[in-house]
Amino acid sequence: IIGYYMSSIDHNEIQKNYNNIDEIWTKEDSWHFYTFGKIKKFIKNEIKLLDLGNNFTLLNAGSAGNDYEINCEKHIHVDLIEKNIIDKPHHIIGTIEKLPLKNNEMDFILCVGSVINYTDALCTIQEFSRILNTKGYLILEFENSYSFEYFLTNSFKKKANIVNTFYKNKEEKVWIYSHKFMKELLVLNNFKIIKSKNFHILSPLIYRFYKNEKVASKFSIFDSFLSYIPFLKNYSSNIILLCQKV
Predict the structure, then answer these.
(1) What are the tens digits of pLDDT across the range 98-116?
(2) Most buried residue among 12, 48, 214, 216 by CB atoms closer than 10 A?
(3) Into which CATH architecture does domain 56-245 fall?
(4) Boundaries of each Methyltransferase type domain copy (predicted)?
């Protein structure tokens, strides 16, 4: 991690962009709607397999108000956009890089929808490790610099880099992190990775050359096959991990 340096993405810019969006995941945006489906399925399956019951506390980092149908004792929503979470019984308006919570206070952390790509990943993962119980769980999803979307650019395979990507047919700035670097950060902060799932493998390559996310998203049907090929799966645009603090 020597030489790793983070400048920051402007939180005011994020607030301005997302304040104007009524619904984060819509069918019209086929690329991100597919992503949402994959995330929901992973969360549902893993929480069921962990057999936690509903007697646990959960931090939903950058939730945009999504509950993901999780039943738990206390569900804390965190988001920069007030309107998304103001009606939730437990909510924190602000960045996930610094949270007003005690050490070892949470049993479970959810950070999906590429939320970590809007933050300094090192700060965020350190903060998650601080507030999570030993043996607590983290589900983390992020955008990977090995994605074919960045093929033939100087961002391809970078540990960390700011890039212009797309959301709701508009360009936006985000951090991208390599899958190797993200795993290094997790291990350094006392997390072990239990399971990972890769998606959007071929579709980013199509997007790279056609610059049309609707056309590209149709190629995500090949994910279920390609994700079993060890060499290829590392080049997915999105990776979701189940981790445990040890």
Answers:
(1) 999 999 999 999 999 989 9
(2) 216
(3) 3-Layer(aba) Sandwich (3.40)
(4) 90-140
